[in-house]
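Retro notes
What went well: the complex prediction finally ran end to end.
Inputs used:
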Amino acid sequence: MKYAYYPGCSLECNAAAYDNSVHEVADLLGIKLQTLDDWNCCGATEYFSQDELTACAVIARNLALVEPQVNQLVAPCAACYLNLKKTDRLMSDHAELGAKVNECLAAGGLNYKPGRVTVRHMLDVIVDDIGETAVRDKVVRPLTGLKVAPYYGCQVVRPIADGDCTEYPMKMDHLLTWIGAEVVDYPVKAHCCGGHMTQISEPQAFELIRRLLQSAQDYQADMILCMCPMCQLNLDGYQGRVNGFFGSDFKLPIMYFTQMLGIAFGLEPKKLGFGKELVAALPVLKAKLNGQFALS
Amino acid sequence: MAEKIGIYVCHCGSNIAGTVDVEEVARWAGVNVKDVVISKDYKFMCSSLGQQMIEDDIKKEGLTGVVVGACSPHLHEKTFRATCSRAGLNPFLCQMTNLREHVSWVNSDKEAGTVKAKSLISAAAERVKHQAPLEPMRVKVNPATLVVGGGIAGLQATLELADAGYHVYLVEREPSIGGHMAQFDKTFPTLDCSACILTPKMSEVGQHENVTMLTYSELEEVSGSVGNFKVKIRKKARYVNYDKCTGCGICVEKCPRKVIDDVFEVGMGHRKAIYTPFPQAVPRVPVIDTANCTYFTKGKCQVCSKICPTAAIDYEQQDEIVELEVGNIIMATGWKLFDCKKIPQYGYGRLANVYTNMEFERLCNAAGPTNGKIVLRDGKTEPKSVAIIHCVGSRDVKTNPYCSSVCCMAALKLEHLILEKTKAEVYAFYIDMRTPMKEYEEFYQRLLEEGVHFVRGKVAEVTDAARMPDEQGKLIVQVEDTLVGKQRRIPVDMVVLMGAIEPQADAKEIGLKCGISCSMAGWYTERHPKLDPVATMTDGVFVAGVCQGPKDIPASVAQGAAAAARVQGMITKGEVLIEPIVASINEEGCSGCRICNTMCPYNAIEFDEEKNVSRVITALCKGCGTCVAACPAGVITGAHFNNEQIFAEIEGILWDAKPQTEKKELQTAK
């Protein structure tokens, strides 16, 4: 199966581990990802709060770049995913806006017909298109004994949860059971990580991060698995600061779900971007997977 | 004889006239449709003046056919047929065409609406010329009635008919009659004991000489039509001989196998593998649950058989099909509770102390698993605080858009019971408080005074993720209090979800068996939502209770009685007129291929071996037309729907699609 691929800015630097593992896992599952040529930033949350037309035009440019013979665009980053999906929907629901966006695109010789491209998250592609049997078939190193807390964040499931429950999503839960992990059913899996709040008000942001870490720890999770670079950055990068702020002692590795998928598929941790996280994950894997985890 | 057609176009106030130029339609038809001698419009054609006008015209002009362009034939076909009949014109020479539901109500463009109305009038006029006078058939009404469902609505209907002296077959799927009402502790707003008012009715039904109870039985098949239905009932094997059993209950007492009761006790309590659902069950004859019975699963035990003083246990019993003949059917099949797991953020099934309202009813019930003590899942701790969440799975576009109508009152009742039985603080989370019936609002006022904390807002989630020290070990209800305009987190020990009332899972399937349909939400569709709430589109089939839409006990009882009254009317009259719209086979052309025999969904075609021809049994034929279409020789005719009539109708509707020259004339005429 062939998909256009939109990495987004985060996956080029701070979330490089996500990008590495997405590609490794996709190759193994036969998902052909073709990176968009000359893609541009989706504008994150900022553009939309400034000017809708500009935001839509900037985002629609990426949709317009998808080759005519491909109609699926994969975006692993939650913000990119939502922005692309939202723009497509805004353009089809509001024909006037759609026309204006296309006027903007025309300046670059581009055009986008709303609804032509379906924007997908990597999780949906693996769960819905590849499916349980194919995933289970590829597992060579089941994650038996490892307790993982799937963390969805807000943007992938809100407001548009693709075939999942907005309030209490289950897709990643299912996927993780397919690879043998013990999934922790903790109550805050779709609560907000604070997003950019760390830049605005640290006490507020740290409290949001603390709640997530606390709940996962209360439910005895060994690690939290993310599907969004922002979530991963907040939970991993600020974990030390949160500990300092609250006097807590969290030590939870925060990984991307694709990284653990890769481990279950027997791929090299290094190729999957292990080691780029701040709270080291490998010691936990070694301890929990009972020595069956041979590291090179 | 030259045809003389009269056209009558109704304004229906502004219902039709608002989007159709009725005067123009009438004028146009008078000029352009062939054989039309009179064409009129009128404000309300169904009024007595309107009808009188048609009657007078028929007599004066000697009309040979009448076309009424008005509302749906469902509403007024009978009216206008009767009008014609009174004036001496055969009622089947009256054709109605729907200018309201098919034109004005679904269209906002007056010009386009007017053109479409003209087409429909033209079609009806062309058709009516080919219609033949028909005589309705008279059929005797079998005085026996089938009631499906032994809840309170079905029981009431049964008793009304039985007391009036008519025989009733009461079919109930569960081992006992009683329905959901038997599970409740108290009833709102009077707080009288549910069992105390229900069980007398149950035993009355059980002992009534005019009632044949068929419990643990399901409706299998319905054939025939009003007055003469043939019904097949599957009596599921009880493995207990109904006639020999005295209901002493010793088998239940001695049965060594204890099972969680998922039906009557909604998982909150136990029963035995041989059981009656509750002590006051009617009948008292138990059933064996073969999935759990030690003898059926392991081949050993037979304690019940050894101990039964009347040798009533019969492990070899099989399902039995009982065939009944009845004149009318009352459907009172009830409801099921919304699956609260479908709203996962409320934690049901995940967080131990989140309950459904039906589970909580059993907790409150003195005859329930805790003898009426309100305790947490550990079976001993009394909650210090309880949250009741209204509208779980109702008034919610993601699950059910409708209001379940009884849950506000049921919640108030449960809140009162908590205050009465415990020292707990009670929080009620509601969207809107709906207490519209007699003495309901007063009950709400009473609860306000009793000190329930009412919080207006839809609950976002119920979680065990504590943030504050006082939230540790509690269930936290996160809600936007829309009266205060603030987010609140309220820690409680127990949460009760007021699950929505939903149609039975197989309501659609069961409805199809007797020819009734369901609304979008799955409730049985009544003949008219305001003026005929107990009859259905199928003559002789009536609905009562929640299967027609959410309602409380008084309304269910009223509807059960109303349905019974309608059936009594039919029985007293003694006969019904059946539309003569049936198929007939021209025996001379029939080759005896018998294709139609197997196609007929009503088994209404018999085969004459001697003459080698098929023949329609008129009394069973519903006029569906399947055989007409299937006959390879084309010798089956459907009365009132023959080829001539249909082709004429099509030609009429295509009046403006005639060859170019003719079309121009028509347009100028317009």
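What we learned: The interface with chain B takes residues 165, 167-168, 170, 185-188, 211, 214-215, 218 of chain A (CB under 8 Å).
What to try next: split runs per interface for comparison.
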